[in-house]
Amino acid sequence: MLMFGITHILYSSAFGIKPWDLKVGLGIGLVSSFCYTFLYFYLSGPFTYLVAVYVALIGFMGWRAMAGMQLCNDLWTWTKLSACIGSVLFMVSDLTIAVNKFCFPVPYSRVIIMATYYAAQMLIALSAVESKDEEVFIKRK
């Protein structure tokens, strides 16, 4: 859990801190709070606090990826969309792990976890590709 938490911090940093888009942040905060409240009744000992911190970290990572997308104007790109979808899939993967581990067995949990996790990693990795190409293109101008 520690290493995945560090990963979410690094992903958040890579997605950037701007734009803020507080509506998206509030939405993710509400979803994260709901998920933690659901999990809380099944947690005991240090997991009560560790899972809270982890949910906050993954929620922050999801917010940063989703806030950067900006579908309502011309600032969105395929790479930002890729980061957004990847972060949502990462959240689904981790929620499935948590429910399966702490609450009750999730049917086909291994398939759900691995499919969403690897798709998330691929999409997040792809989100970095075009950014590098854009920097090279701008430097050539």
TrEMBL record:
Pfam family, one: YhhN
Molecular-function GO terms, alphabetical: alkenylglycerophosphocholine hydrolase activity
Catalyzed chemical reaction(s): a 1-O-(1Z-alkenyl)-sn-glycero-3-phosphoethanolamine + H2O = a 2,3-saturated aldehyde + sn-glycero-3-phosphoethanolamine; a 1-O-(1Z-alkenyl)-sn-glycero-3-phosphocholine + H2O = a 2,3-saturated aldehyde + sn-glycerol 3-phosphocholine
Keywords: Membrane, Transmembrane, Transmembrane helix
GO cellular component terms listed in the entry, alphabetical order: membrane
Record field: transmembrane: 47-66, 78-99, 111-129
Membrane in keyword set: yes
Record's keyword annotation contains Transmembrane: yes
Signal peptide start and end residues: none
InterPro entries: TMEM86B-like
Membrane topology qualifier: Multi-pass membrane protein
Protein location: Membrane
Family: Belongs to the TMEM86 family.
Protein name per its UniProtKB record: lysoplasmalogenase
Organism (species): Micrurus lemniscatus lemniscatus
Lineage of producing organism: Eukaryota, Metazoa, Chordata, Craniata, Vertebrata
